[in-house]
Amino acid sequence: MKKYFKHILLLAAILTGVTACKDKIDSESIFEDVPVLDENSATYEFDKYLYENYQLKYNIAFQYKLDDESTDMDYNLVPVGYRQAQIVAHAIKYLWLDVYDKQQGPEFLKLYAPRIINVIGCPAINAAQGTETLGVAEGGVKITLYNMNDIDLTNMPWLNKYIFHVMHHEFSHILHQTKSFPKEYEQISAGKYDSQSWQYRSDAEAYSLGFVTPYSMSEAHEDFVEVISSYITDTREVWQDRGFTMAEDHTHIEAIDEDQEGTLIIATKIKMCKDWLLEKYDYELDSLRAEVQRRQDALTYDIVMNDAYDK
Ligand SMILES: [Zn+2]
């Protein structure tokens, strides 16, 4: 029985480390066999799409059919609708896989991307705490996304909240767990982390203390990946609230007022994340962010569903 650290990204709840036991998950080569694609199946076209664009290309299994073995039995869950599953798969290809593929190459995704993306139809509500779990990552191998029956391609804040912020957040955990986390990062906000009551802080309060989100205040590793994920996905308007302006072509952001302490701390953190990604992975955060922002601006239903961007 292998043990994996189960990481849960919560919207507003105290993060507690939970260790989950999972069998049969291997980060190397679990999907080498060609799946049985039944041409007479009603889902044949979509299953073929997933095989070609996820499994064959990146060794990623996109799971949309709810089964007992791969779902968290603590929640009352419903499966994602077939149409919604197709939209999620195309959206992740458009705003996540294609972006990393274009910048870092397919081998990067094959090496570091989660092996399983598990998609659930309804939200995961923690009734006792009155909170909602946005996504769960298990050992860097599997990411579960909830609430996918509500997917709406016209609602970018929703897409970022439930899919892309979660994906970049968890993926960044995989990257810092694979190569040594920068120790000096822990010093920037040492003494300011608040693992017990971060959820009671407002966005504005977090910004003023040098954190990009209230959740960043839970601890340094969460802070680190929240900076990367927020830097990539958040729009010009959100960065304005944090005291930054964004270049027209999205290539960089700049502090509006250098005297704002919180803004300065956030700028220091962004710089450290950028330097670390470049040094360890030859990964340029500004360029990845610019590509994501351009795709967010260009997003239409037709572009996403027909894989028509840049072609
Ligand atoms: Zn996290």
Walkthrough of the structure:
The structure is a single chain. A hairpin with a 7-residue loop joins strand 1 and strand 2. The strands form two sheets. Strands 1, 2, 3, 4, 5, 6 and 7 form a seven-stranded mixed sheet that branches. The protein is globular, with a radius of gyration of 19 Å. The N and C termini lie far apart (46 Å). With 311 residues, the protein is of the alpha+beta class. Helices cover 44% and strands 13% of the residues. It has eleven helices and nine strands. About 6% of the residues have low confidence. The protein has a single domain, classed as 3-Layer(aba) Sandwich (Collagenase (Catalytic Domain)).
What is the strand and helix layout of this fold?
Elements: E1 3-10, E2 18-21, H1 44-58, E3 61-63, H2 82-104, H3 106-112, E4 116-119, E5 124-126, E6 131-138, E7 142-145, H4 156-178, H5 185-188, H6 203-208, H7 220-233, H8 236-241, E8 244-246, E9 253-255, H9 261-281, H10 285-298, H11 301-305
Parallel strand pairs: 3-4, 4-7
Antiparallel strand pairs: 1-2, 1-6, 5-6, 6-7, 8-9
Helix pairs in contact: 2-3, 2-10, 4-7, 7-9, 7-10
This protein binds zinc ion (ZN).
